[in-house]
Amino acid sequence: MPKLKEELIAISKIIKFKAGTIILKQGAYVKVIPLMLSGLAKVFKEESTNGNEVLLYYIKPGESCVMSVTTLIRNEASQVKAVIEEDSEIVVIPADKALQIAKKYPKWNEFIYDLFNLKFEELLNIVEILTFSNKDTRLLEYLKKEAQLKGGNILHTTHQHIAYDLGSSREVISRLLKKLEHEGIIKLGQGTIDLK
After folding, report:
1. 186 burial class (0-12, 13-18, 19+ CB within 10 angstroms)?
2. Exposure of 65 in the CB half-sphere (CA atoms within 13 A)
C-alpha cells in the first residue's frame, strides 16, 4: 500500500474546485480520475430528449466517481455529468496513469470494486425511491440525505436547486415543501430548510 500511495502522489496533482464547477460532462471522454479529498460532488444523468437531470449519487471525501472509472476502462463517452456541490479539493489522476495503476496494484482495484458496490447500492436506493415512492417520500429522503452529508439539520438551498436535483419543477417542490412544513416535519426559512 505505501508503494501505491507513493506512485499516486508522483503521478497526480491536487486541484481546488469551486461549487458549481462541472468536472465531467455527459458525452465527454474521461481524461482524469478524481479522488475527493474534501467537499462534495453530485453525479447526474441527463435525459437526452428534454435536458432534465436526475441525481444518481454523491462523491464524498475518500471516494471517486465509479462511472468515470468504468467509462475509462471501456474507452467510451461518459453517460453522466459530475458537478461540484461544495468547494472541493480533488486528487486528479491522469486517465492513462490510472489504467497503469489498476494493472500494477490489486489494492487499487479492490478500492474501486468496493466503491462500485457502495455506489450501486446508492443507485438502487434512488431507483427504488423514484419508482416506488410518492413524491413526498422522495423529497423527504432527499432532504435527509442532504442533511446527513452536510452535517446539520439546516439546509441552505433553494426550491429550484432541489427541483433540479430531483428532476422536478420548482412549483411541485414548493408545494411539497409547504405540505411537509404543515405536517411539522420541516420549517421553511429564507433560503433555508430546517429538518425537525
Report:
1. buried
2. 30
Which listed CATH number (3.40.50.360, 1.10.10.10, 3.40.50.2000, 3.10.150.10) goes with 133-195? 1.10.10.10
Q: Which three cell numbers stand for residue 96?
A: 492513462
Per 3-state DSSP, the chain is made up of helix, strand and coil in percentages (nearest 5) of 45, 30, 25
CATH 2.60.120.10 region(s) of the chain? 2-131
pTM: 0.72
Look up residue 69 and give its three cell numbers: 472509472
Q: Which three cell numbers stand for residue 108?
A: 487499487
Q: What is the pLDDT of residues 37-63, one digit of tens each?
A: 999 999 988 877 776 788 888 999 999
CB-based contacts of 159, cutoff 8 Å, min separation 6? 170, 173, 174, 177
Sign of CA dihedral 192, 38, 24, 139: negative
Check: CATH 2.60.40.1640 for 2-131? no
Distances (CA, A) of 182 to 64, 69, 154, 174: 39, 44, 17, 12
